[in-house]
Amino acid sequence: MDETLRKYQEDLLRAQLSRRRFMAGAALATVSAALAACAPTASSTSTPTAPPTPAPSAAGAGASPTVAASEAASAAPSYALEQGMLLYNWSDYFSPDNLTKFQTDLGVTITQTTFASNEEMLAKLQAGGKGQYDVAVPTAEFSETLAKAGFLQKLDKSRLPNLSLVNERFLTLPFDPNDDYIVPKDWGTTGIIYRGNKVKEPVASWKDFFDLAKGKYSGKTFVLDSPGDVFVAPLRLHGFDVNTTDHDELETARQELMALRPHLQSIDSDNYPTTLQQEEAVLGLAWNGSAYVLQSDPSGKYTDTGWTVPTEGTIYWTDTWVLLADAPNPNAAYAFLNWIQDPAQQVTESLYAGYASCNDAATSQLPKEFVGNPAVYVPEELLGKLSVATDQSGNQQRADIWAEFKQG
Amino acid sequence: MLLVIPLAIVVVYSFGVRGTDGGYTPAFVLDNYDRLLSRPDPFILSLEIAISGTILCVLVGFPLAYFLATRAGKRKTLLLVLLVIPFWTSFLVRTIAWLIILGPAGLDGFLTNLLGRDVSILGSPWAILLGIVYNYLPLMVFPLYVTLERLDPTLLEASKDLGAARWATFRQITLPIAAPGVITGSILVFIPLMGEYVIPSILGLGKIFLIGNVLQLDFLASRNWPAGSAKAVVLIAIMLISVTFYVWTTTRGRAGRDVSVL
Amino acid sequence: MTARPMRPRVDRWAPVVEGGFRLQAGLVYAFLFLPILVVVVFSFNGTTRYVTDWQGFSLVWYQRALADQTVQAALRNSLVIAFINAILATAFGTMAALALQRVPRRFRIVFDALTFVSIIIPEIVIALATLILFSAFRDWANPWLAFFAGADGRPPKLALGVWSTVAAHVLFNLSLVLLIVRARLSGMDRTLVDASYDLYATPWRTFRQITLPQLLPAIVAGFLLAFTFSFDDYVISSFVAGSTETLPLFVFGQIHQGITPLTNAIAAVMLLVTITILLVGQAVLTRQSRARGERGSTPLGMLEG
After folding, report:
1. Of A101, A408, B14, B110, which is most buried, counting CB atoms within 10 Å of its CB?
2. Residues 278-297, chain C: which have Cβ within 8 Å of B?
């Protein structure tokens, strides 16, 4: 009988513990991250004798530079490459071909760790301190948060000649006006996705989207689970600035959103490609990459997937490479950041992820169909309609509206 | 100790004000609690779902536990282990499997064809309840099993010999003995349920919004720690009350027994 | 009350009730295993990307799973971490349980309370707290290591990785094993131990020949559980694993890009591994206990009370 008790206890604990990982203690957790806000400073100040400066050195074995008391070694900086580089990236967002190529070209092995959201990345950096990784891939506006928190290194542009190949649209962005921190990775837009074999009506504007969603395709429409993207639709519908904080404008947006809400099939950022594939939804507010992925699916079944950049305008966003503070392998990191902007690598990346390159030289080398595909590259005439979204997560009214919207 | 400090911080933060870039600025305002009280919906919905989920678990779990404790005989061990094996797969993968089963390729599609109109279990509270019962069932069954195992069959026999109807036997003999198990199981299901947000998010298709989701938004998306902290404090308070209640009821009738659930 | 003997009621409903119980139990088990079945079945889907798009029976995802370097590394890491963690947690947990036996009741209650608290606390808080702890320790320790290793210029540098994950898991599973062993200990027949001492056996001997065999099922059970928990852990690993990838980390990462049957194949493999371990464990113990002539001392056999 005590055996049963014990077995029950163990299984109970075991089952409980696996439930735990999803408790809303994410709240408490991030509060611990607040506690950790002390930790980074502690970790950078508590080093007694030789601070682990990334001193350039004759690269010893292992992925870390030596914690040598020989700061004197940097008389003439020789940027000898370390053997490894630590990349912190979204899942499935870096071409394995490029990974191997970096190894062949420069002899550096990249170890990749993944995260599932910007916030997760931030929490981990806050809790674990600097020096965990070399390069990370935040969404552009999030890089500002990282920079302010001191997690990024200012880029020494003299070591990144390939930056000159980047289209100016992606430079001097509001969150990094001097391009001190970011190296653009790729860019995309938020717009309207639809299954052409089911949706025969014209879908050219946000107005079309709202009308169709509330009308014929009620119950078959989805939107992203992302306030920064979803707010764009009602705001642009009325011609407001996507970054507005005007109370009345946001209130109008709220009304539009709440009118749309009952007609939605789902509010989801992760599973919607499957939803579209199954035709559980045939219309949606999404990111362009998924349109390309569906269209080009080898089975050939989803070529009818359509993508629209709405005529009222929408946002474009970039994902960026950033160099983290106290990176253990800075030389390799710099080499990487420069190397990845090489047109050849950019082409590989673009074709792998399905997103447009920020690099003009690369764009000219990509296949015509790829560049001509509106789901990847925004057509010339609409480029002017794109604006950049800034981080509005602090706006209380928006937060309230979003909570109400999610509530239904 | 490492675990108590975050709790203290949460309480302090709940009175603060959001910093300009998110985070926390020291303050002592009741704004957050205020706003919380003016929008109690997520709490209410969470309570509803948590309570119904718990009740469902009891309804489904009790017969099973009873069967295992009294009827399973030789196969008892095997069956108990079988109960647990599904949990050796990744939680997320299991939940996604339910998406398939309940989705257009599965139940939803079947019912739609059958009834001629668009049926959607996914996205409704029913899907969530199903997911809950699925994932939390062992948590209910095991405590019930443990208590029911102590049920002396001779008592039941005696009751039958004295002419009692089946239901009376159940009510007067089985139930009181099983009561601690029911309470334990319920608390152990209810507490995590209040904070659950993954199951609602996936099976509710993002449309069902529970306290867990709210906290996620507050802390991760808007990085409004004070607001989130206030809600967390209320949540913790609710849980503490239930735990205290549980401890009180179970220790009441158990003076002298060294056996705690732990 | 008369003394007239009462005739026992004819229980006409008995077979129905019995059947009902069986049916309900059967349904519940079917319910529990349905998704597992779905996961396994769809892992054989020859589709290009979308799990629900059945495109023929194929082993391509298993191939891909086995060919993928990251998956292999993740699987390897998970197994290694889980195994080491299980050994350490079991060892320390058992020792702690034994130590607690001799400690005055007051402390035991405190300990119980602490364990209770650690259950209530969400895993993610523990993960973060551990990460902070480790990072602080690492930053403190590394320069010292450098100092001592001095001359050859290549001191071992503590970093997050396999060992930090093991450590974090051990911390957690330790209390798990502790509880299990303690429960078993408290039900143990003390007279044998007393008899052993009366016969002048040393404490070590007593432990080895009396206590240990009786505890063995709990220890093995704790081991299995610690292993399983570590193998399937996501939250703690995601924070303290540094640049080491484990299988659950990989699976969760896949979720964000969309579910392909790859995750199904991996989940099926995970299932296979854990079931195999259990069966092996069970077989080994049954053989052992049969040799010893005890029937009920396997972790599973023990459930029959």
Report:
1. B14
2. 278
Task: Please write the tens of the pLDDT for every residue from C289-298.
Answer: 677 665 444 4
Four-way CATH pick for A189-316+383-407: 3.10.20.30, 3.30.420.40, 3.40.30.10, 3.40.190.10: 3.40.190.10
Tell me if B212 and A24 make a contact (CB, 8 A cut-off). yes
Which of B219, B225, B260 to substitute to test the interface with A, most A CBs within 10 Å?
B219
Class of B41-221 in CATH: mainly alpha
- Selecting from C142, C218, C250 the residue whose C-beta is nearest the C-beta of A67 gives C142
State mean pLDDT over A246-268: 92
- Which SS3 state, helix, strand or coil, does residue A113 take? strand
CB contact under 8 A, A274 and C252: no
3-state secondary structure B106-127: CHHHHHHHHHCCCCCCCCCHHH
pLDDT mean for each 10 residues of chain B (262 residues):
54 58 57 70 83 91 85 69 71 80 78 76 86 84 72 78 79 76 75 77 82 73 69 73 67 43 36
- What's the DSSP call for residue C246? -
Q: Residues spanned by CATH 3.40.190.10 within chain A?
A: 80-187+317-379, 189-316+383-407
User: How far is the C-alpha of C245 from the C-alpha of C193, rounded, in Å?
Assistant: 46
Does 3.50.50.60 match the CATH number of domain A80-187+317-379?
Answer: no
Alpha helices in A46-168 (DSSP H): 96-106, 118-128, 140-148
Furthest-apart CA pair in chain B: how many Å? 75
Arithmetic mean of pLDDT, C82-87: 88
Categorize the per-residue pLDDT at A192 as very low, low, confident or very high, splitting at 50, 70 and 90: very high
Query: In sequence order, what E strands does A93-229 have?
Result: 109-115, 135-136, 182-195, 221-223
Neighbours of C27 (CB within 10 A): 13
- d(CA A286, CA A192) in angstroms, rounded, equals 6
Which stretch of DSSP H or E encloses residue A323? Answer: strand A314-323
Helices (H), chain B: 4-13, 31-38, 41-66, 76-84, 91-102, 107-115, 125-149, 153-161, 166-169, 175-195, 198-203, 211-216, 225-252
The per-residue pLDDT for range A334-356, each reduced to its tens digit, is: 999 889 888 888 888 888 888 88
Asked if C258 and A112 come within 8 Å (Cβ–Cβ), the reply is no
Contact A13 C259 (CB under 8 A): no
When CB atoms are compared, the residue of B198, B215, B222 closest to A399 is B222
Residue boundaries of the structural domains of chain B: 1-38+224-253, 41-221
d(CA A26, CA A271): 22
**Between C108 and A319, whose confidence is greater?**
A319
- Picking from A299, A322, A295, A310, the residue whose alpha carbon sits closest to that of residue A211 is A310
Is the CB of C300 inside 8 Å of chain B's CB atoms?
Answer: yes
Nearest residue of chain A to residue C129 (CA atoms): A32
Q: Pick from C9, C25, C252: which is nearest to B64 by CB?
A: C25
DSSP 8-state assignment for residue A155: P
A 120-149 residues inside an 8 A Cβ radius of B: 120, 123, 145, 148
The confidence score (pLDDT) of residue A159 equals 87
Q: Residues C122-176: pLDDT tens digits?
A: 565 666 666 666 766 766 776 776 666 554 444 445 556 777 788 878 877 776 6
Name the DSSP letter for residue A152: B
Per the rule left: phi > 0, alpha: psi between -120 and 50, beta: everything else, A179 is left
d(C-alpha C6, C-alpha A163), whole Å: 98
Q: Do A7 and B80 touch (CB under 8 A)?
A: yes
Chain B residues within 8 A of A216 when measuring between CB atoms: none
**Element housing A315 (H / E):** strand A314-323
Placement of tokens 């009370």 in the chain: C305
